[in-house]
Amino acid sequence: MNTMRRAGFARMAWLCPLLLVACGEPEQEIIPVLVPPSPEVQRQAAAGEAAAQFAMADYHLGDEDPAVMLRWLRSSACQGYAIAQASLGVLYDAGDGVPQDAFMAYAWWTWAGRQGDPEAATFAARQYAAMADDERAFAETLLQDGWMATPDCRNR
Is position 121 within any domain? Predict the structure, then answer.
């Protein structure tokens, strides 16, 4: 047997146990282990650093009560952190932890898109295309006021 073929069999022998595990009995539920943000990130978030606040929101994403996650996310978004703004748009679009509101979703996606988030800009464009003319006029008025005028930022 040539060496190339032997090497191939050696690799296959190594893969067999992996394939048997993957194709064998159904796996047990995998529960992710969430590592809390470092004390430095927590300190930065408390000091008002937008990226650290977003990291704190991300950590609290799976909490049963979304209040802590929303507090951090809103703090980050209201400072102009585009990823947090796009995330708020997703929450408003789905009504996940906040009241479902197509206008707020559009506004947050638009603000994030204006800061260079292409996916948020795409979501905003789709939302805008689905609006009636009077809804578009209302949405544009909402945008003119800026994100600091939203209840998310006024009530922090």
Answer: yes
